[in-house]
Amino acid sequence: MADARSPDLPVCKISLSINGERQKFTLHPWTTLLDLLRGPLELSGTKKGCDHGQCGACTVLVDGERINSCLKLAVSLDGAGIITIEGLGSPNGLHPMQETFVEHDAYQCGYCTPGQICSAVALVKEGHARSRAEIRELMSGNLCRCGAYTNIADAIEEVMDTQRIRPVKEAAE
Questions:
Q1: Residues 7-60 pLDDT 10s
Q2: Buried b vs exposed e over 115-150: b needs ≥16 C-beta within 10 Å?
Q3: Whole-number Å distance between alpha carbons of 49 and 115
Q4: What is the reported pLDDT for 78?
Q5: How many CB atoms sit inside 10 A of residue 18's CB?
Q6: pLDDT recorded at residue 59
Q7: CA–CA distance, 16 with 96 (Å, rounded to integer)
Q8: 3-state secondary structure the chain
Q9: Residue 116: which of 46, 50, 166 has the closest Cα?
Q10: Phi-psi region for residue 70, left (φ > 0), alpha (ψ -120 to 50) or beta?
Q11: What pTM was estimated for this model as a whole?
Q12: Minimal CB count within 10 Å: which of 3, 11, 149, 165?
């Protein structure tokens, strides 16, 4: 791959806040946010699954909204605030959603977990889910090949409950 500063290839200069730290970048205009995060920034928590926006493994928060980072060109986000799984919490102070995912075993292999957690954080913030069926529908863009969906929904419901967002409990799935 050619160097981003190569005179024969176009580059763009942008500034992003990544996990609370403002950074400047010179990059090719075709660089996706996912490739920027996993490449030069070495933030490997965000996973490259399908690279087509179909699995949700690359979900991050951009100005508080969940997006598939594999579909977003980094240059289109100049000035934005990006939060990855690494920016949600730390080993000594997990985000409440991370804590409940651990408590409910809402992961198996763990590959999809960072995207699931980022998406779940945004789902709670959006405030649209009022039932388990709505949680499942609003999380449908995040696939789990291990099938931990029940535990994922349990974790999200617990966070919603602690924030006094009362999902309607439904019969066992």
A1: 689 999 999 999 999 999 999 999 999 999 999 999 999 999 999 999 999 999
A2: bbbbbbbbbbeeeebeebeebbebbeebbbeeebbe
A3: 10
A4: 98
A5: 21
A6: 98
A7: 25
A8: CCCCCCCCCCCEEEEEEECCEEEEEEECCCCEHHHHHHCCCCCCCCCCCCCCCCCCCCEEEECCEEEECCCCEHHHHCCCEEECHHHHCECCECCHHHHHHHHCCCCCCCCCHHHHHHHHHHHHHHCCCCEHHHHHHHCCCCCCCCCCHHHHHHHHHHHHHHCCCCCECCCCC
A9: 46
A10: alpha
A11: 0.89
A12: 3
Alpha-carbon torsion (30, 2, 13, 54), positive or negative: positive
35: tokens are 């490739």
- Give yes or no for a contact between 170 and 132, defined as CB atoms under 8 angstroms apart: yes
Of the two residues 170 and 146, the one the predictor is more confident about is 146
| Residue 170 pLDDT | 54
How do residues 86-96 score in pLDDT, each as one tens digit?
A: 999 888 899 99
Instruction: Give CA–CA dist 128/124, Å, rounded.
Output: 8
Asked whether the predicted pLDDT for residue 84 surpasses 70, the reply is yes
Q: What is the mean pLDDT of the chain?
A: 91
CA triple 148-126-100, angle to 5 deg: 35
